[in-house]
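In this supplementary section we document a worked example of the pipeline. Step one takes a protein sequence of length 237 as its only input; no multiple sequence alignment statistics are reported here. Step two produces a three-dimensional model, which step three serialises into structure tokens for compact storage. The input and output of this example are shown verbatim.
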Amino acid sequence: MLVLWQTVGGRAFGVLNVSSPVLIAERTWAWLKDGSLLSNLAVTLREASAGFVVGTAAGVIVGILLGSSLLVARILGPFVSGLYAVPKVVLAPLLVVWFGIGVELKVWLSFLFVVFLVIYTTWSGLTNVSADLTNSLRLMGASRLRIVRVIVLPAVFAWVLTGLRVSFPLALIGALLGEMVASSEGIGHMVTTSGDAFDVTGVLVGVLTLTVTAIVVDSLFSYVESLAKGRGLVGNI
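The serialised model returned by step three reads:
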């Protein structure tokens, strides 16, 4: 595919429209040498990571509340579902008014993309714990704490890990969206600036950078999940 892109793509569609692997490699190397690519990537990762951490913490807490109490689920469940259905993009102008165009805007957008997914995965993990297993342990005299440690936590942890693997790319999307709305740094700003200049090569360098970043982070989550399974922290209940 790369050979076809390099040899045929430019002739068929024009180099200005589709760039080429060689041009992308040269631009990537140039931006790595002057430090602009890594510095902007660091900005985007800081924003996405902050929103990811806060969204994960809030999502787990709310998910536990919803999964542990039927009353709380009946009261808060409709509000969570309604807010989850709202496209986060339409909230960007409102967040600009509330938090300005600084880092807070990107962190809050990342938070909104993450929190609802983590809520649902945690909630689902709690509601899908096997009632037969918990009742069996209870009949055998197991304490509530032991039931939580042996059955509930491993089952919920598996769901939460799945939610984290899916939600980090969403945190990146939130940060990028904020940078495209208003920013002077970050990968989103680089992509927007390149797009405004009809610089397809610059845009594709940004896309490639984010793709590699997402693959690396997903591999890290996969490694953590395998470690957790090896130590019995994750169950398939």
